[in-house]
Structure formats: C-alpha cells, structure tokens
Amino acid sequence: MRDLDTKNVIRLTSFNIKTNKKQIIGWSVAIFSIMFLYMILFPYMKDLAQAKFDSMPEEMLELFGVKNLSSMGNFISYFGMIYNIILVAMSIFAATFASNLLFKEEKNKTIEFLYSLKVSRGEIYLSKLITAFLGVLAVTLSAVLSTLICGLINGGETFVMFDFVQIVKISSFTAFFFMAVATSMAGISSKVSTAALGSGVVLVCYMLGFLGSLLQDKALWLKYLSPFEIFSPTNALVFDTKVVVSLGIYMLLFIALLTVGGIVYKKRDFNI
Known about the structure:
By secondary structure, this protein is mainly alpha-helical. It has one domain. Helix content is about 80%, strand content about 0%. It contains 12 helices and no strands. Helix 4 (about 75-105) packs parallel to helix 7 (about 160-170), helix 4 packs antiparallel against helix 9 and helix 6 packs antiparallel against helix 12. It is globular, with a radius of gyration of 20 Å.
C-alpha cells in the first residue's frame, strides 16, 4: 500500500473536522467576539485608557504591547496592539488543538481503530496536520473578519487596508508556527501531555520577547527567540531585512518541525 493516498487523507481530514467542529466553532466565535468588542470601542478607548495607563508602570504596559497612548488614536496601531495580545490566546489554541489531534487518540486508545483500517501512518499524520491548519486558519479568519467589520464602521481614515493585510499576513504566522511546534511534539512522543507542553512553550516565548524588549541591548538576542516579538505588528509594517531573514529562518524551522514529527510518527510505537 502506498504511504499516501489522497482519498484516504481527504476522508480522514473530513472525519477529524467533523469530530472537532464544536471546538473550532467555539474558539472562532470567542475570538470574533473579543476582537469585535475591543475594536468597536476604538473611538472611545484613548479617553478610557488614559487614567488607567497613567497609574501603571511602563514595564507593565510593555508586557501588553502598549508603547504609548498615541496608538489609541490610530486604528491600525490600536489593532496591532490588541492583535498581538490576542495572538497569545490563538497560539495556545493552535498548540493545544494540534497536539490533541494526535495525543488524545493514543490516550483514549481510539488510534487502534484507525490503525486497523487500510490507512498509513503518513496519511493519519497528514490528515491531522491539515485539520490543525484549517482549525487555526478558521480562528485567525474570525479575528480578521471581526476587525475588518469594525474598521469599515469606525476606522475612518486611520483604517488602511494595506497595513491591515500586512499585519495579518506576517503576525498571524506566529499561531501557525506554534501549531507546527505542537504537531511535531505530538508526532515524536505521546508520553507526556503535549498540549500542556505546547502551551508552556507559547508562554515562555512570549515572556522571552518581553524580556528582550525590557532589557534592550543587554539581552537583545532574546527577541529572536520569540515569534511574538519578531513578527509583531510593528515589525510587520516595517518589514525590513531583519524581518525578512527571520521569516525565512522560522519558515525553515516550521517545515523542519513538521517533517521530523512526521518521520518519527511513522516509525515509533503507538502508545496503545
């Protein structure tokens, strides 16, 4: 039997999506609602935030991606600030959702059913990967659609479509990168909860980026370990050589993680 059969992959992917559609829809609705709530209040946020921000230390503001209050008066800057925070939640979803597609089936012993069918491990892994990608894409698009609606309603002249698309294209890669990290870990081993481990990696990377920004020249290298910092909305708009090179490196790492996960998954013993 061939290692990959397109029809088998499509059938498995369809089954995975049906099985996990409630989770995908639930997260999509939640992210859409949160983004809509924040973005529809854009015209009022500068005045509302002034009193709160004045009483908060600068380091605390930087933790949440707030450099100064000028971002509150520009829709794109305001979107970038909010989106960089929401990306943490989206990345946690990406990590937990992707890893559980593989981890839970072995934990619940339902992988025995798939293994008894005329499907290869390569087909199982690829179908899980496609399902994870579509799930993360659905959640990402929900945030994009919500912001687009609000931008057309109250963005005014500060809602620049090109800048909006640029941020979405570059910054959203962060969630897909953590999807690859979790998928790779789940493909390599099912001995530990890769969902929890993947979520931990997300939070650690976010904190590394924050520390790199906080310490500046003393630990500038920490920024390069955090996709949240490297592909931040601010850097996405600049899109200079540093961002292009970093994107290329992370893309190679993205492909390498998924490839290694698939190779090991096809060779290792299932935990059944």
